[in-house]
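User: Run a structure prediction on this.
Assistant: Running it now.
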Amino acid sequence: MIKMTEKMHYSVRNNSPLLLEFKNVTVVRCGKKILDSVSLSIEQGEHVAIIGPNGSGKSSLIKTITKEYYPLATADGLVLKIMGKDIWHVFELRKLLGIISGDLQQTCCRQIRVLDVVLSGFFSSIGIYFNHNVIPEMDTRAREILEFLEISHLENRFMCELSTGEARRVLIGRALVHDPHALILDEPANSLDLRALYSFRESIQKIANSGKSVILVTHNLQDIIPEINRVVLIRGGRIFKNGKKGDILTDANLSELFSLPVKVLEKGGYYQALV
């Protein structure tokens, strides 16, 4: 396994398949289009923020990536590929993409040991059970991840005893343990105080600088780290804007996206929206 301290280069070669490739992806739930002809591609090793208001289709996009939602076949030619393949076994897909969400954190808020939560990433479970064969290499890897995220001191604590920020980093460890190509974070900094937000950003920056793709899905500009080089704005289930971070994060674009006057501030590669 590749150690987290080693630099990885997934997308340098021209012949590498795209990490994600969507073309004309439409998803309907309960008779309503929640994604409408979405076309989007993300390269391996690329860092992208997907930003939109509540109900814009952000979570639906993630669920389409993870095969929880399935798109409609369209006359325009549907493409939905991950690493160049359009058919994946869900268990294999989970190894390829590490996903962290608020829902997952609520599920994990139990009397489960931190080390066991990280190890459970190998089995796509929450915690370790009698039918899980944890081999020494897995244990070593889990401890490496805890050290990388600077939370080794928490390994024997229960998840229900942790702060929100600590629990978030444990879930990042669970997502990283099987060495995925990309980390997808859904509203990652919700409920974090300033100190926890600072620690969270440090962890995500370390991951981005290790060469893995980081995809932030959020409504909050504060989640964006300097390593993010592209921003996608989504509203009404459609891609609204897509381009370089500096070109997209403007007062005019954000005001139109959120339908109210927004002032965008930038300092040291970090962004803030004022209304």
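The first strand starts at residue 20 and ends at 29.
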